Amino acid sequence: MGRRSIHTPEQLRQLILDAAAAIIEAHGLAGLSAREIARRIGYSPGTIYNMFENLDDVVLNVEGRVLDQLDERLVAELAKGGDQKALVQQLAQTYLAFTHERPKLWNLLFEHYMPGGTDTPPWYQEKLERLMGRVETAVAPLYPPDAVLERQRAARVLWAGVHGITSLSTANKLSNVTSEAAASLVTDLVGNYLAGAAIKAAPVRAAAS
Amino acid sequence: MGRRSIHTPEQLRQLILDAAAAIIEAHGLAGLSAREIARRIGYSPGTIYNMFENLDDVVLNVEGRVLDQLDERLVAELAKGGDQKALVQQLAQTYLAFTHERPKLWNLLFEHYMPGGTDTPPWYQEKLERLMGRVETAVAPLYPPDAVLERQRAARVLWAGVHGITSLSTANKLSNVTSEAAASLVTDLVGNYLAGAAIKAAPVRAAAS
DNA sequence: TGTGTGAATTGAACGGCGGCCCATGGAGAC
DNA sequence: GTCTCCATGGGCCGCCGTTCAATTCACACA
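Predict the joint structure of the above. Result:
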């Protein structure tokens, strides 16, 4: 069969990524295969190799879209504004909600290693840093303007901490913690961490407030 | 070929689990296969099915051993005793060190879902709860004796938080955070969280101390 | 020491899936 | 109508989990 011209190359790319994401969400990374993607989009396996280098390339691009989607959510949340302290809490809850919506898809980010231990491409690292930057933005008002390192550290700790709660709760590996309870754990983590950090900055005032 | 009696059944079980763990540590869960285990231990694939129900059963038992090994480490750390506050920090660092030693093997716990969404067997959940109990023990002296819920919550939050840092740093998904830097993030997390929690319990005294 | 017996071990075989490639022929350009 | 180009999808080759009839050996007993 020759060319179909039903879909533009870009449409085809998106079709493939949509299908791949759906498969991963339903059956995990292990359930993904070029044939299965092809079946779902009504094309043949070969088509996928015209648009992507190989399956790992497809997966990497699915990951990229997930990161972009999370970024959109965080940006939307930041745009709402509101109380500074509450903002960090809101971001954390947004992250939690996002990862709980499509747990297997989110888990993909941690299941998928690059073949041969290659590290992820620059655009991927940039997406990660962009996300981290959102948290830094939210945390910024709570720190003196010149406390750059503290801010970065806080952002990373909070990001990782919230990630830990979502990761363990979606995997059902936090003994007896349901998804709903995870939200209150996140609140507790963020609240106590920020309170503790505030003491270090200005012990007396923090305690008095 | 008939019986060899070179290994007792129990030895054979351990041989299989050793080999499986080695394969997973080297190539991830995706690299595991009954044939590969058989090759490594010098037996045939069929032998594995005499000792285990199927490959998932093997994997589950590898997970069990990993949990047991971590528990041993935590217990050893608890036995050392020492300052109460420092103890929580020590446990956290022990966890971090353990997961960084064999990252792929540790990751197994979060890559491997039970087939068909079955939940993990009771003995597995018990191992998880035993681990959580270790953290509760370490946290206990920092809370009033009757504050059971607070203690449990703190243990879960700390456990998950530390897990998040180890998870992201081993996966290289915490922008620009190396393995060594992870240790200081853990210290920061535990320190600030506990400090924040202390305020809530007794604002004035915590600030004054 | 010889022999019978059952358990342990085997490995070939089944049915299926996978990644990836390339000769083919249909679609578009002129 | 002709030609060119490129998407196509059938096919190659290999690996997988799992099974089970056949085989071989350890051991008990004589």
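Confidence is low (pLDDT under 50) at residues 205-209 of chain B.
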